[in-house]
Write a structure and sequence with these properties.
By secondary structure, this protein is an alpha/beta fold. Helix content is 35%, strand content 18%. α9 links the parallel β14 and β15. The radius of gyration is 23 Å and the shape is elongated.
Length: 336
């Protein structure tokens, strides 16, 4: 069955939903890497499909499935309902799972990836033999619930700080988490360790051992690094206002000497007040335009408005995807 189009996964099952509502594909910040996983026009990328393949194999294997299902029993239809409001994500995972592991089961989507639903809405209709439909019930609900929960929580954060909320590499399901964050309106940040270079305190501690201080090592690194060898972007972690200012000053000098992208300066465990001070000092010295300011650490939802308004470009947190409640949904066999 041909289900791929131009290297992207469009899905090979009937979809009866409206066009999914997702964020724009054009990256506005270096942290916006979601287009590497999914676009409205082409669906899931090869990179995302490879991740889906790995996670689906683990899911079905852990559930005792070691070969494609070919069960018996009477034909049935079962409907998946939302039991709370949210954003649906995970349809592409279920499509792939059924194509490979339960080819006799068909699914029609009433709410595709990225679609908002309300409690009581129908999400999908599964049809097939009773044995096969019931065998995939929990697997499908687990994938849909987990990823929809992440997208829903991200949407909640992004409604207060649009195009500013980024997840981190602290994930449960790797790229699937990042895909769900993207579909919820968030920023993926770097997709893997090698996708972009992030220099943190442990990295600095292991380089330039002839220098005594963290700040000296940071400055030396920024003076020497080749911007063409850092992947999607370069980011440095700073622990004090002084370190942040030094990093911005060095990078502004480098940008004055050539065509160099902006540096991402992470303000690690800074308060909103400290972030505002750093941003204002950079503005005063004419170096703010050379950096992307990101805050990370200690970000809580109840204070998100303060983070949003303190002069930052990005607020990164793992709260949007780790420890998130799955979106509540259930499957009911027709006739019950």
């Amino acid at each position: 069955m041909g289900c791929a189009s131009k290297g992207r996964w469009k899905g090979c099952f009937e979809e009866v939903a409206d066009t999914p509502i997702i964020m724009a594909d054009a990256p506005l910040l270096p942290h916006d890497r979601g287009h590497e996983l999914w676009t409205m026009e082409e669906g899931a990328s090869r990179k995302l499909m490879a991740s889906i393949d790995r996670w689906v194999s683990a899911m079905v294997g852990d559930d005792g499935v070691d070969m494609p299902l070919s069960g018996t029993g009477a034909p049935i239809e079962a409907t998946v309902f939302a039991r709370q409001d949210g954003v649906v994500v995970g349809c592409a995972v279920v499509d792939y799972m059924l194509q490979i592991w339960a080819p006799s089961v068909r699914v029609s989507w009433f709410a595709g990836d990225g679609k908002r639903v309300s409690s009581g809405d129908e999400i999908a209709m599964f049809s097939g033999t009773s044995e096969d439909v019931l065998a995939v019930e929990r697997l499908a609900l687990n994938a849909l619930g987990q990823l929809s929960g992440i997208a829903t929580e991200t949407k909640r954060w992004s409604s207060i700080a649009p195009k500013q909320i980024a997840c981190t590499r602290k994930t449960i399901w790797g790229l699937l988490d990042k895909w769900a964050v993207h579909m919820g309106g968030g920023l993926t940040h770097r997709l893997s360790k090698d996708d972009a270079v992030m220099i943190k305190e442990n990295d600095l501690a292991s380089m330039h051992d002839h220098l005594e201080t963290h700040a000296e090592r940071l400055v030396t690194y920024l003076q020497d690094v080749d911007p063409n060898e850092v992947g999607a972007f370069l980011e440095v972690e700073t622990r004090t206002e002084k370190e942040a200012m030094m990093a911005a000053m060095v990078w502004s000098q480098r940008r004055s000497e050539g065509d160099v992208p902006r540096l991402v300066v992470m303000l690690d465990n800074f308060s909103p007040e400290q972030c505002k001070t750093v941003s204002e000092q950079m503005e005063d010295q004419g170096i703010r335009e050379h950096v992307v300011l990101e805050a990370s650490g200690g970000i809580v939802f109840d204070e998100l408005k303060s983070w949003h308004e303190c002069g930052l470009d990005v607020v990164s947190t793992s709260v949007v995807n780790r420890g998130v409640q799955p979106l509540d949904m259930s499957m009911l066999v027709k006739g019950l």
